[in-house]
Amino acid sequence: MFLGPIVLSFALLAFWTALGWSLIAFATPRARPLQALFLAPVSGAAITMLPVFWLNLAMPISSFAGPLFVVLCAITIAAWIWRRPSWTRGDLIFFLPVVVAIIVFGLPTFRFGFDWMANANDDWANYNLRALRLLNNSFFQQPSLEAMKAGRDYPGFFWFMDVASGTRPGSDMLLAWVSGVIGKSPFFVFMPLILVFHALLCFAAAGLAMASLRRRYLFAALVLTALAPLNLYAVHQQLIAQGPAYLQRRLGMESLLESPIGASDYMCPSCTLYFELSILPAQPSPTEHYPGCIRRRFDFPLFSCPKRPFCAVRVFEVG
To answer: Does this model's pTM top 0.90?
Structure first.
């Protein structure tokens, strides 16, 4: 029995929860504890992705993955020393469905360990090859044409997608960063990471649905979301970018549009949106082909400062 992959998934979930709560405690100190718990993991992933992207513009991810992890851990420890979350046992019980889902969805890891590759489809290969390019090269570094012609640099072909075509490799960057931190190839880290992404989806959806669901119904909805067969399909089909992001968009946007939001709640959904938009593949959105289907527009600032927002996110409800 192998426990390493599941331990890695739980460690990443705990790390991003602690890191994300540090941001929430600083930016929205009056946020409701349960909502902060739900939105902390995806906020932590967004905080991690920002410096990974910025630093990768100048250097390979493998050169700074470990030091960045140490810095983020230091920030998290300092924030938790400064302020502790006021979560109760009734709040922490919401972790149970997600923990069970990670174990159930990741059952093959107990037998195969890091060698579990699920469906091993072409998307899985593409995500890993792109992660290898970012792991060993800076974002704009051009590949060697001679090496590509000789078949020695297949990851280099993704330069044409990332730089020339402008795709969004956020999920691949996080995959490369986790790979650099633990010292394993992205091919072996992929499945533990997508299990964590499933947990981020469940918590983000629950956090944004709090405005319209009572506590007991919210727990039931979280159970159904965490153990939904469609989500199991998305994990085992290795849809690390498309599946969680599109589900998160549909669940999150409706919650934002159907309920009033206060100024102190702006930051948490913004981190969720940033994480979603940065991992989405560069595919046409429904509004590009069907502009008439836009039903409503909703604008909110990116940071919790209603008088001086640093920037704004515009959300369209489509139907």
So the answer is: no
